[in-house]
Every structure is written in C-alpha cells, then in structure tokens.
Write a structure and sequence with these properties.
Radius of gyration: 15 Å
Number of strands: 22
Helix content: under 10%
Structural class: mainly beta
Number of helices: 0
Largest sheet: 12 strands, parallel
Length: 191
C-alpha cells in the first residue's frame, strides 16, 4: 500500500493548450498496488494514465498494465474520484491512441479511455485481452459513480473510436468484462 499526498496522479498533471504529446507508450506495473488515501488528506482523486487533465494534443499514445485505487469505507461518498486510462479530464484533442490499462476502483467516475470528455477524441480504442477484467468499479452506491467502457461522461465529440476485447478461450466468448455494482455504459455512460 502506498499513501498519496496529492489527489492528481498521472505521468503529466496537465498537458497545456499549446502542448503536444505523441508516440509514447506507458506500462503501469502496479498490478498488486493498492493506493490508499485517508480522510482529510485529499478532497479529490483524479488519475489519468497519461495525464490528469489534457488541454492540448495527445497523438499515438498507448497505456497498459493495471492499477488499483481504494478509499476507506468511512469516506465512501466524500471524495470525488475520476479515473481514466488515458486522461481523467479531456478538454483538448486525443487521436490514434489506445488504452489497455486495467482499472480497479471502489468508487467514482471511471472510463476505460477518459473519465470526463469535453474535448475531441478520434480514431482511438480501448482493448482488453486475457482473462482479467478490464474495468472493475465496486462502488455500492450510485452517488458520484459512473462507469463507461470508453468514456464515463461525454459533453464533447467522439469519432471513429471503439472498445474491444479478445476471447480468453476457444469458445469465442468475450471474457473481459466491465464490472460494476451500479449501472454501466458499455461505450459511454452519460452523453
């Protein structure tokens, strides 16, 4: 377990309006990590595989691996959680990018690609393979909880993008799942 002091986590905290991030591959090796934060330490947790907030241009970027976030039960509803495979919040442009980052949280707004999109996303995808689940949101309340396979909350534009998976065995069944105890959107939860 690792305690965190800041509520904004990602390779970059913010990608500015005039910035370009391209041709980047990030693999998170935190498949057994449990990032725990306690009451009063942070008021929000925002995580993006590339950036917490994108205001610029992200082109040809890939994320993979697994990451887990857990909040203590006593603060279940008191903290805002935004988790995205590429970015927690997108106000810029993301294109030709892919996330295979497996996300496991116990509450919050979770998107396989972006948690909240107000910008533009094009020609991008979320791909999960193997026998593990792609997204697990084990929240027990719908309060402040949204789970989307690609984007949880969209007020922007999405073009030519999709979510896909591979079969875990010869049966051809899609074994990779988006699991949540609350309602989910296979592609976008709220549009």
């Amino acid at each position: 377990e690792q305690a965190i002091a800041s509520g904004r986590l990602g390779l970059f905290e913010t990608i500015g309006d005039n910035a370009l991030i391209q041709n980047l591959t990030i693999e998170y090796a935190l498949d057994t990590a449990n990032i725990l934060y306690a009451e009063g330490e942070v008021e929000a947790l925002h995580f993006g595989g590339v950036a917490v907030q994108n205001d610029g241009i992200v082109y040809n970027v890939k994320t993979s691996g697994q990451i887990e976030f857990a909040t203590p039960a006593q603060i279940e509803t008191g903290i805002e959680v935004l988790v995205g495979g590429i970015s927690a919040q997108n106000f810029g442009d993301i294109s030709y990018s892919q996330s295979s980052l497996k996300l496991n949280v116990n509450r919050g707004v979770v998107g396989g690609f972006v948690a909240e999109n107000s910008g533009a996303i094009s020609n991008s995808k979320v791909v999960y393979g193997g026998t593990d689940n792609g997204i697990v949101n084990s929240a027990t309340t719908e309060l402040m909880t949204k789970t989307g396979g690609f984007v949880a909350k969209n007020t922007g534009k999405i073009y030519g993008s999709y979510i896909a998976g591979t079969s875990a065995d010869e049966s051809g069944r899609f074994e990779d799942k988006i699991l949540s105890q609350t309602p989910i959107g296979a592609f976008v939860f709220e549009n």
